Amino acid sequence: MKAVKEVKRKEYYIFSPFLRIFHWIMASQIVILFITGLLITKPMNVSTTEPFFTITSMDLVRDIHFTSAFILCASLILRVYGFIVNKGDRLFPRVWEGHFYEETVDVALHYMLLKPHHASFLRNPLARMSYAALYVLLAIEILTGFAMYFMTSPSTTGGLLFGWVNMILGSEMMTHYVHHYVAWFIILFAIGHMYMVVRAEFMEGESEVSSMFSGKKILAHTPKDANELD
Amino acid sequence: MKRDSLWEAYLKRGMSRRSFLKGCVALTSLMGLSTDMLSKVVEAAEKKPLPVVIWIHGHECTGCDESFIRSASPLASDVVLTTIALEYDHLLSAACGEPFEKHLDDTINKYNGNYILAVEGAVATKESGIHCMSGGHTFLHTLQKAAKGAAAIIAYGSCAAYGGIQAAKPNPTGSAGISHFVGGKTVVNVPGCPPIPEVMTGVVMHVALFGTLPPLDGDNRPKQFYGNRIHDTCYRRPFFDAGMFAETFDDAGSKAGWCLYKLGCRGPETYNSCGNLRWWQGMSYPIQSGAPCIGCSNKNFWDEAPFTDRLPKYGKIGDADKIGVGLGVLTAAGVGAHAVASIIQRNKRDDLTKEE
């Protein structure tokens, strides 16, 4: 194997800085939210005999959880802005286009190791669907989270905006369950996501990992969905 | 026939103006009103004729009545005998039989549009409602008949509000709350299993004195009694915030009166006045007695077992956290194996391209 090779590649600018910043805020906040969330469901017990402030204080854990949730929600504004100004931030699962399904099968067969490779994409259809699913999970977490958070005073604006979630789910306890279960699905997504990104990097060497820092993918093949950047 | 007002009822019983005013003060605070409303309460109590109340019972255990008759301020006997005109009550009436059933019809006709309908118990909807019958009629029939001319409808207890224990899965009788069976009228929900006695009397007195429904929240519960979570009014809340929890029902924390959150307390999800009003004239409430709240005033609380845990358990597998860790490990192992297989596949592919 030669140490230096000459390869012709094209650079595609995909992710706006707004999306990238949002991505890393989201990633860090999800970790914080998940850990504090587990601690809220099953709190550590402080071994004291009198109430006093400690690092395991439920109050502190909850405050971190809430602060982190607000940071995550606030950062969504970056995502929305990037979505508006930059085409690369808009890589939907194009379920309304026929070729989407053929390509999905093609990529899935490759991931099932039944095919040696799949066509090159800026973002392949399975990845597109998984990110769409993540946003759905995130939306559920935000709705159920605020539904619980604001109900300390149900007649305030927040209570009126989110109280209906508890009604739809039947009871507030159910809201807790849904919030908790969906959190686990987000973590399962994160494991899969990190693996797929790293895998794409070592399989194809097409700057999958660094794209979330630089905003660019440097591809050897012409991606099928390159037209979505025009 | 002219009906007495509260003041006239006091006069008839030879009670003083002073005790009348004291009664009004008690009523004012009981209804959750601020004290500057006192003059309005007094005025209403002097002028408004005592409200006619029809109290019917459906699919339930009558535990709400057991609670109601223990109301101490005002005494339930005072409410029943002097402050409301209770014309018909399945449980408390001494009369029975056909004359009693006829009296219900008479009352409905005589006070059409003016009486308060208090309902306890769920509507059994399956098999045309035969699972709950009295006086030869299904409860649904009685309810619809009485609801038609009611000025206000109050659903007492979680059964009347949401269906109650008998609505637990698989709900063989098709029990449901009354709100869909009263012809679109607003139902004041007073959930609880049972509701706090003073809350029951407070709500009926509010309707009786002001002729209007009390301010209601999105679920039609009176805000003054269901506006706060038990958790947010609980005297054990400092232990929660500090992270001091009873782990079992017999450990030191439990004996010391620490927070019951880890024993499944539903205080953080439950809206009721247990934390501030408490029961039996402020004597105690479940959490104070060392029993975690089971959320008896919540919709569907009966299907949210176990009451002594924060998360449901799924047989031997355990709760969501155990399953989550399991799935996480499986996923990690899966991607690990996939990674190895992918590398093998890539190497094969590269060999092929080299040969070409």
Give the neighbour order of strands across the main sheet of chain B.
2-1-3-7-9
CATH architecture of the largest domain in chain B: 3-Layer(aba) Sandwich
CATH class of the largest domain in chain B: Alpha Beta
| Span of the ends, CA to CA of chain A | 37 Å
Q: State the helix count of chain B.
A: 14
Level-2 CATH architecture of chain A: Up-down Bundle
What's the SSE pattern of chain B?
A: HHHEHHEHEEEEHEHEEHHHHHEEH
Helicity of chain A, as a percent range: 55-70%
Number of domains of chain B: 3
Kindly identify the CATH topology of chain A.
Fumarate Reductase Cytochrome B subunit
Please describe the biggest sheet of chain B, giving its number of strands, its sense, and whether it closes into a barrel: 5 strands, parallel
Number of helical regions of chain A: 7
Question: What best-fitting shape of chain A do the alpha-carbon axes yield?
Answer: elongated
- C-alpha Rg of chain A, in Å? 21 Å
What is the CATH level 1 assignment of chain A?
Mainly Alpha
Largest sheet of chain A: 2 strands, antiparallel
